[in-house]
Structure formats: structure tokens, C-alpha cells
Amino acid sequence: MAITSRDVARLAGVSQPTVSRALRDDPRVSEMTKAKVRAAVDRLGYVPSEAGRALSSGRTRRIGLLVTDLENQFYAHIIAPAHLQLEQLGYQLMLHTETADNETIVERLIANGVDGVILATTTVDSVVPLRLRDRGLPFVYFNRTASFADADATVVEPASGFAAAASRAVALGHSRIGAILGPSNTSTAQSREVALRAALAANGLDLSPHNIRRGPFDTRTGDDATTSLLGQLSPPTLIFCANDVVSYGALNAARRLGAAVPGDVSIIGFDDLPAASWPIIELSTIAYDLTTMAREAARLIARRIEQPDAPVLHVKYETSFVERRTLALASPSA
Fold this sequence. Notes:
Layout: H1 5-12, H2 16-23, H3 31-44, H4 50-57, E1 62-67, H5 73-88, E2 92-97, H6 105-111, E3 116-119, H7 128-134, E4 139-142, E5 153-157, H8 159-171, E6 177-181, H9 187-202, E7 212-214, H10 219-230, E8 238-241, H11 244-257, E9 266-271, E10 284-287, H12 290-306, E11 314-318, E12 320-322
Parallel strand pairs: 1-2, 1-3, 3-4, 4-5, 5-11, 6-7, 6-8, 8-9, 9-10
Antiparallel strand pairs: 10-12
Helix pairs in contact: 1-2, 1-3, 5-12, 8-9, 10-11
């Protein structure tokens, strides 16, 4: 027969509701009583029921992580740190995918019984944050933010990384600069474009319209855009990519076209994903602490659930430039 909380109550000499409160670390229960309950739990090998705890507290201790593209390597690197942080805080991470049908996503999240949501793929014009707010479901922004609803967020400040990268590029003789930018309806693409243009302008350079391409943050974008850029009569000697995943596509295109990297064209990414430092890639890129950023998003959603009236926090992460093999002197023929 399974051990129940009533068995724990009898052994500890307290009521069953007191056992439930003690296991939730309720401040109304004395430390002495909590110790007696924990001792009884250990002696009996009692394992609290998640369903029972959800019924008694009104919470499931589940947090949804909403992403769009499960194949995108970027998201794979935020799942583990977010999961580990939430686990330490007593929550479970549940992965949810956002489709083109945003009409039902909030209802699906609520139906799955999550206590809060980490939004990792928000567009600036998304109505999902508004609907979450209207339904009273706590959420935080990770990396991207939306325009219609303010909330806790972890975001990247790209200016310092681009400033260092642009300065180094000029020192290496690059003047024809190309850029593969992300979707214009994302806050990340917008802030990176502003930072890149400012960094180039500070060094006396600009982005010519014919050297700009845009697309989703994926390898296909990098491949197609690089093929187009290098096919021009006077191609750029350096291409800034929207992120590392786009850069991988750019590297593939250059290899296929027979263009040496960095001999014919240099490539700079953004994010410093683990694969960027692999000897086979050695991608120059703009870096920030992605792991800490994911853990902070987990802490913020737990805080928002437990302290619903707490002030809104926007936690910003500075960037730096990491130079590797894919950046070198501009081609003498440039």
C-alpha cells in the first residue's frame, strides 16, 4: 500500500493539512514542526503527489518554454540551463511550439496547465503577450520582446560587440561590408541592425542597400543570401550575419561557390554558440553569456509567479567580439 500524507501526519504527530503546509515551506508552520514532518517523510519514504500538490496549491509547478523552430540550434542551447535552473526552484520545464496559428496558442498553454511561460520567439507585433496578460498567465521575454505588452525580460545589448568587430574589420582593410539581417519584425534583428550601422558609421563606413539581405534566423537564409552577395560584380569582402546559425549557412555557400573563407570573404556571426569555436568552423562572432541569460529568464518567471506584484525587470547582457579564423585581411584585390 502506498504511503500517504496521512501516514506522515500520524508519525509526526500533526494534522494532515499541517504536513501539506510544512512540505510547501509555509511560514505559518514552525521550524520545529517542519523538521518533524521532514523526519517522518524520510523515515517512511513518502513521495508527495504532483497532482495532489497542484490541487492544494492551485499550481502545477510547470513552466512552458515557447519556441517556433525546434530544428534551430539556438534553442537547443537554452533548454538545458533553463531546465536546470527551474528544477532547482522546484519547477518543471515543458517545451511548447508556436505555429502560424497564434489564435489558439494561449488556450493550448492554459489547457496544458502551466503556471507561467518563457517566450523565446516573440515578434514585435505579436498579440500572444497581450492574450497571456489578459488571461492572467505570467510570462517573461527571452532574447526578443514585443511592443504591445511590457514584462520581465532578458535581452542582449549588441552595441559593444559590433563596435569592437567593426573597428577590427577596418583595421584589417575591409571597406565593402555586407550584412545578412534577421526578420524586420523581431526586436533582435532591429537592435542588431541599429548597432551594426552605428558601429560602421563610427568607422566611416556604411551599409549599401545592394549589400543587404534579410531572412529568418536559419541556415537557409545564410546560404541563399551569401550566394546572392558573392554573385555580384563587386561582392563584399566581409559579411556580418544575423546570428551564428545564419553564419553556418554562409560558410556552406562560400565552400560550394569555391570562395575561400577568409581569403576571399570574411564572415562574422552573432551568439557564440558552442559549435562556433569548433576547429572545423572557428567562427568569428559577437558573444554574450547565453547560459546565464537562460537561467535568469527561469529565475524571472519563478519570481513573477511567486511575487506577482514585483517591479518589472529588464536584465541586459553586454556583448564582446571573439575573433577566430573566419576574419582576416581584406583580399588585396578588394
